Amino acid sequence: MLKSTGTHVRPAGRALAFLLGIGTVPASAVTLQISPVTVEMAQGQSGTIFTLSNPGQTPIHGQLRVFNWDQINGEDVLSPAEHIIVSPPMTQIAAGQSQLVRLVRTGQDNRHKEASYRVLIDEIIDLHTQPPNGVMVRMRYSVPIFLDNGLTPGDRSNLHWALLCGPKHWQLRIENKGNRRARISNVALEDGKGRKYVIQKGLLGYALSGRYRTWDLDIPVNTVFGAQAIVKTTINAKESINKAYVQCPAAPAPRKAR
After folding, report:
1. Statement to judge: residues 40 and 125 lie in one domain
2. Contact status, residue 66 vs residue 80, Cβ threshold 8 Å
3. Which partner for 71 in 106, 142, 187, 211 could form a disulfide, CB atoms 3.0-4.6 Å apart?
């Protein structure tokens, strides 16, 4: 049974980066550094840049692709990008060196006032630089990109929180009715009796403008929360306390025996 005080609850099925391969990553493994970690483009801005740096001792080879980023039925969805391209599409960064990456706007994205994209950077393994007895590891990095399509200083995220009971576990649903995305991190729940559940230390994810995002939680569905729970979190780098309303359809009444 899950302990409810001071418990860390891992969101099920969540990943910020993908590790493809078998075995552990050695301490000397190359790690790509990205700056800034979130890229923004103002309205009317035709392009921007970000930097990839290789602090390691061997070259990094990678493929870069840009995708539309949306949230459909509570899940992140990527599709072929329109209105923006990334250059270069392939990169080779020598040890201790950096590479500028350019994003170029080729048209107006009218999906939202704030359009969202992601650049995926897939490492390409160089067989000539791998140690003979080493593990072949392929890393994928994901960079969020946000385009301003007419935001005003008054535009904000506007979040609505809910706890939903799934078949086996509770779910956290965050709906953003505002015009700006919400970057959500350091999430903890507290029920009406003061029991606490640490959902995520660090980044949980984003609720995009006009969309909702759902996370599965490793909290058994038979855990009782009452009518609402308190959510303590950090939204866009600001600490926040919110109410999450509990939505759990009542089980159907048993049929009477004839």
Report:
1. yes
2. no
3. 211
